Amino acid sequence: MSGELSPIDKAKFVAAKRAADFVEDGMRVGLGTGSTAAWLVRCLGERVREEGLRMRGIPTSSRTAHLAREVGIDVISLDEAKWLDLTIDGADEFNGDLNLIKGGGGALLQEKIVATASDQMIVIADIGKEVEHLGAFPLPVEMVPFGWQTTQALVEETLISMDVLGNNSTLRMNGERPFVTDEGNYLLDLHLNRIGNPRQLSLVLNQMPGVVENGLFMDICDKVVIGFGDGRVEVRDINSGTVEKDRVDFVESDNLFADLGD
Ligand SMILES: O=C(CO)[C@H](O)[C@H](O)COP(=O)(O)O
């Protein structure tokens, strides 16, 4: 099975596998969305089945909820959990301050709510996600469908007046139709190239009527576990300033890969 994985997928896997070690017995854990987070869910499922790890998972999307149940994780809602010990999620970009762009997988709203309700957030990512300045990845903005074209025009006008907007903004599509989030909203992807002041941009976007939330995660992430295609991992902790280097063996496991293809 390992021979079929690309170096990027291996990097995502080793980051997820290392991060799964941070989950302790009895924890309530926010489970992110996306391909890296899906590896995490599989690794945690393996720990539940093989080590008897007792944990409850709070998924950030219907996709993750489905996978988590499939691999044997006890799934509960955020309202049941109320507060979480830890959230582990992927990211589209992270910078040196561990600020993030998220939402490439369309789940930023639940992801931000769950991460904010956690004592700690750990991001898992392949090394290709590290950037000096956020913004090369299009910034997702979740908006209500009502009057979305008016909201788009307002967002564009405001960002042009702030000298922020690069090329344009595009409505995320799913084939011929708008992509619809788990909350029934649409997504606007902002093509910005480079975000000079992400904190200010996030505040401005969230003040606009019609905008529900944006994909900038500022001061939420505590640690990043970075995976490399050759099995190396690096754990950077923003609070302690420590960097820990490690290696994860890429072991083929029928259990782990049996549910591939979510
Ligand atoms: O924010 C996200 C979903 O909304 C994902 O974490 C992000 O898109 C990274 O995805 P992947 O792990 O597949 O590269």
TrEMBL record:
Q: Which residues constitute the signal peptide according to the record?
A: none
Q: In which pathway does it act?
A: Carbohydrate degradation; pentose phosphate pathway; D-ribose 5-phosphate from D-ribulose 5-phosphate (non-oxidative stage): step 1/1
**GO CC, any one term:** cytosol
| InterPro entries assigned to the protein according to its UniProt record, in alphabetical order | NagB/RpiA_transferase-like, Ribose5P_isomerase_typA_subgr, Ribose5P_isomerase_type_A
Kindly give the SUPFAM superfamilies that the UniProt entry links to this protein: D-ribose-5-phosphate isomerase (RpiA), lid domain, NagB/RpiA/CoA transferase-like
Q: What is its EC number?
A: 5.3.1.6
Q: Give the enzyme class.
A: isomerase
Q: Can you tell me which residues bind substrate?
A: 33-36, 89-92, 102-105, 129
Q: Keyword check for Signal, yes or no.
A: no
Q: Which GO BP terms, alphabetically?
A: D-ribose metabolic process; pentose-phosphate shunt, non-oxidative branch
Q: Report the superkingdom from the record.
A: Bacteria
**Which reaction is the catalytic activity of this chain?**
aldehydo-D-ribose 5-phosphate = D-ribulose 5-phosphate
Q: Name the residues annotated as catalytic in the UniProt entry.
A: 111 (proton acceptor)
GO MF entries? ribose-5-phosphate isomerase activity
PANTHER family on file: RIBOSE-5-PHOSPHATE ISOMERASE
Q: Function of this protein?
A: Catalyzes the reversible conversion of ribose-5-phosphate to ribulose 5-phosphate.
Full protein name:
Ribose-5-phosphate isomerase A
